[in-house]
Amino acid sequence: MNEVPTVVLPTVLEALAISVGGISGALHARRRQMDVMGILVVGFCAALGGGVIRDILLVSGPPVFLTSPAFLIYAMFGAVLGWIFATVASRATMLIHVIDGLFIGVWVLVGASKAIGTGLGFLAAALVAVITATGGGILRDLFCGEKVSLLLPGQWLAAAALVGALTFLSAFWLGVDVYVAQWMCIVVASTIRFVSSAYDVRTPMPMDVSKIFARSG
Amino acid sequence: MVTHRLITVNRGETPQTPSRQLPTPGRRATTVRGMPQVYTGLTALPEWTLYLAVVVGGLAGATYAARRGFDVIGVLTLSVTAGLGGLLIRDILLARGPIVLRDASFIWSALAAAVIGFFFAGYIARFDRALLGLEALAMGLLATVGTDSALRAGMGALPAIAVGTIVATAGPLFRDILGGDAPQLLRPGVFLGILAVGASMLYVGLDAWTRQPLLAQIAVILIFFLTRMAAVAWGLKTSPAADVSDRVWSFWSRRGPQQ
Q1: Contact (CB<8Å) A206/B117
Q2: What are the boundaries of each domain within chain B?
Q3: Are B178 and A138 a contacting pair at CB < 8 A?
Q4: Could you give the CA distance from residue A140 to residue B228 in angstroms, rounded to a whole number?
Q5: Integer CA distances (angstroms), A107 to A7, A29, A89, in order
Q6: Chain B: residue nearest A210 by CA?
Q7: pLDDT over threshold 70, residue A89
Q8: Chain B nearest C-alpha distance from A66 (Å)
Q9: Theoretical Cys-Cys bridge with A123: which of A178, B57, B85, B107, CB 3.0 to 4.6 Å?
Q10: Distance between CA atoms of B171 and A120, rounded to whole angstroms?
């Protein structure tokens, strides 16, 4: 078993990833005719919501955005950008999607590493990692009073995060070097995400075995 | 620390979560390799009862997701939240590391429910009355587990009742919220949430009176099951919130100072 990794991103990338989350949340709120407070709150949820849920689950002290306020500043900066420059930002939706897709694997890594560091096992770490990557989107949809888009059939998003998390954790548990495992996770998650959106690959739906038997019999 | 990499890894010490509450000696506790002991809230019942409760809650979540037309992620999410939500909330309320994350059997149980719901939702729908009964048993167990662990964490009667109610009802509540419904728990309908409150109160009372947690637990689970089944069979329903302000107002205006 490897030593426990703690993921520390370079500041620029961290700021970029969180601000982009804030921008996408703000655009989402704006499309629903929310006011300033709505834009800030939904932007915050989209950017940092997953991390907050993760820190509550791990009972590892206050959520990260309280202990390192820079995160909060990045998120609010992104939300304000999405609020003021909505027209510019909504033209750059493609860019936002690409950056979001690139960072899925990174959020998975952050969650997985923190979970392993707290002493959790394989499955629990995978669960926490996926929640870190996707919790923000769930909170965003709940706050907007909509169907949670993550649970509905569509392209691979949470599923990409899940596969990425399983890749990283199995590589890590098999004793692969942590750097290699991390890059595998990022590449796998982003590739699945991009291939799914480029070719419109849908997530599998529940297979009702009883119907299959009823048809054949 | 290497700086030219995208992600730098700090190979440092592993942070340990302190265990705030140690289990009472002689009471069942789960030990996970290298982790502090966490009291499950099962007084002397075997642990598989709690795993079974998770499976039943998860099945309810998974079949709900399949019925609503959710995808594989939806089935997984709802079976995990509906199955594990109550126990998760309990440990968050008691400010300790969630046992459902420490003991992998809980997640395996929820995953088993997800797999069954993914493939066999059609068969489960034929046994909805049986699932209702199993759900009642699971909710009774969860109510007593929540109340008991709050009591053993040193809480008073009223907080323990609150924790027991939340633990018993959080699964269905989360399921409805994530599924985009107004929670069934909060709307007028067949007695459910009110029975969970009653079960938690009864457990506090029986535990204090008999000093036999196991006896109290089994009795409360049975009573909860029987009352829930009776409510379903006879259609005992809660009514929407009543408003007595008009009646109070007319009472006062009749005998008010202006007359």
Answers
A1: yes
A2: 35-234
A3: yes
A4: 36
A5: 10, 22, 23
A6: B122
A7: yes
A8: 18
A9: B107
A10: 22
| pLDDT at residue B246 in the model | 83
Residues in chain B: 259
CA of B200, closest CA in chain A: separation in Å? 25
Q: Would you list the domain boundaries of chain A?
A: 11-200
Distance, in Å, from the CA atom of B49 to the CA atom of B214, rounded to the nearest integer, reads 13
Q: Residue A160: its pLDDT value, please? A: 94
Candidate from B5, B71, B126 with C-beta closest to A204 = B71
pLDDT of B28 reads 44
Structure tokens at B137: 């048993």
Whether the model clears a pTM of 0.90, i.e. scores above it, the answer is no
Q: Is A118 in Cβ contact with B71 (below 8 Å)? A: no
Do A124 and B101 count as a contact with CB atoms less than 8 A apart?
Answer: yes
Block residue for tokens 């979560």: B17
Q: How far apart are CA B57 and CA B51, in angstroms?
A: 10
Residue B190, beta-bridge partner list: B237
Cβ separation B77–A202 shorter than 8 A: no
